Amino acid sequence: MPARTVTPASPERPGAPIDRRGPFRPARLVTSRARQSGRQAAHGFRLADVAALVVVTVVTMIVVSDGPVWMAPLSRVLPMVAAAIIAGRLLRSVGLYRFGRRERSYVHGAGVALVVVAGALAGVLISLIAGHESRPSDIVRWSVPTVVGLLALHALWWIIVRRWRREGRLTPNIVIVGATRHAERIVGDALDQRDINVLGVFDDRLARSPESVRGVPVLGDVSALLTHRITPYVDLILVAVDPTAHARVQEVMRRLAVLPNDVALVVDDERAGPSEAVRRLADTPLAPLDIVDDPDRRAFAKRLQDIGLSAIGLLLLSPVLAVIALAVRRDSPGPAFFRQRRHGFNNEEVVVWKFRTMRQEAADAKAERQVTANDERVTRVGRFLRKTSLDELPQLINVLQGSMSLVGPRPHAIGMKTGQEESATLVAEYAQRHRIKPGMTGWAAIHGSRGPLATAEDVRRRVALDVHYIEHQSFWLDAWIIVMTVPSVLGDREAVR
């Protein structure tokens, strides 16, 4: 793929080149969404391993059974089932889904083999205790294909992870606020370890800051960071301002709170190594599986839900989609679909699909003029589609691709205006709605906040509802929102859509 250049959209140091790459900037920047998907792969790897253990165990039981497997004595079945369960648990608990940056492939393979041996030994012990009908040799026949299968799978996982790391999908990107001695130390540690990319430095005292910090360019002040096009690629904003300067720290943190990116404050002393936040970010290229309330686990479960339901939806609704596309084309000249750039996860720009509901010559890609009642730009078919929200159905493609979710804050057009003001400037917390992927429906939608935003109060209400959803997101809440979407949308006769 061609190299991508990200240029700042805010004031820089006078005379500075518009794109200064620095020692960390890769040829192709990878969005935070892509890196989040890479981290979540650990859960997918584990599911595949569990499936392999189930298949090998069932096939082995069929092979060693003298008759139908369901008629086999429990004393013969139990040892193999126990061995599989123990092996599966050990794969997770000893960290064989972390794929650490400095881990060796042969060490990883040895760990996989030892896990299977431990499961097999436990199975043999259970077999000896179980009685005369059990056969320890069954465990040997189970362990050989299990070792071979798991080693093959983990060799594949290893290749995938290494490729992702080469592509930058597992190397965290950070920016630093504050061209200070703390920033210099962090950049130095990063240069030595190469575990993270420091894309740039921003300093609120630009007049006194250097051109660069150990080669990493100073790209602007804090105001520049708030509107910078680099933010969708940033995993962590590290505030390296001296923590004893309380007023300055509070002001910087307050201003950065409007961004959807994670923000951390450097509090290490002069003798310490990299900050704990950076160390944690660098040391977990894949999501750990042993955290109870793991956001990556929840995001992975949400992604599985999205893939399954969107694939089924596209398959079942394909005749409906074809009929609507034909109706749109026959109603007015122009394409059946309308594509619009909107804000996605972490302020990333994504292209959202819809059925075209306006006349082609009146299409408003930037939503500078929001739709009103009896809007003359909307076609006859378009009015019906907007009233029933059927124009949103093509976004199932976005969900399947991964740029959207079934449930989440509705994606707003970039530069969308409420009255004469850009909607994003009316509420300080507006960007918080971009902390997760946008959705086809959401908590705000089933509570009547959908369609155009006529006033600043409308914007505030929608942002509040979206933030409430983000803070309470769960599988069951998503299921409830999906169930309530159709009656909520069709039962609302007052909303302008």
Indicate the overall shape: flat
Structural class: alpha/beta
Biggest sheet record = 6 strands, mixed
Q: Name the strands of the widest sheet in spatial order.
A: 3-4-2-1-5-6
Average per-residue pLDDT, rounded, comes to 81
User: How many distinct helices?
Assistant: 14
User: What's the order of the H and E elements?
Assistant: HHHHEHEEEHEHEHHEEHHEEEEHHH
Give the total of beta strands: 12
Low-confidence stretches: 1-18
Total domains: 3
Radius of gyration: 27 Å
Strand content: 5-15%
Summarize it.
With 497 residues, the protein is of the alpha/beta class. It contains 14 helices and 12 strands. Helix content is 48%, strand content 10%.
SSE arrangement:
Elements: H1 32-64, H2 74-93, H3 105-130, H4 136-166, E1 173-177, H5 181-193, E2 197-202, E3 212-213, E4 216-220, H6 222-226, E5 236-239, H7 246-256, E6 262-265, H8 276-283, H9 295-331, E7 337-343, E8 349-355, H10 380-388, H11 395-401, E9 405-407, E10 417-418, E11 421-422, E12 439-441, H12 443-446, H13 456-472, H14 475-490
Parallel strand pairs: 1-2, 1-5, 2-4, 5-6, 9-12
Antiparallel strand pairs: 3-4, 7-8, 10-11
Note the main attributes of this structure.
3 domains, alpha/beta, 497 residues, disordered N terminus, Rossmann fold, 14 helices
Verbal overview:
- With 497 residues, this protein is α/β, with parallel strands linked by helices.
- The chain folds into three domains: 35-166, no CATH class; 169-283, NAD(P)-binding Rossmann-like Domain (Rossmann fold), CATH 3.40.50; 295-490, no CATH class.
- It contains 14 helices and twelve strands.
- The strands form four sheets. Strands 3-4-2-1-5-6 form a six-stranded mixed sheet.
- Helix 1 (32-64) packs across helix 9 (295-331), helix 2 runs antiparallel to helix 3 (105-130) and helix 2 (74-93) runs parallel beside helix 4 (136-166).
- The longest helix is centred in the middle third of the chain and has 37 residues, at 295-331.
- The chain is flat.
- The two termini are 39 Å apart.
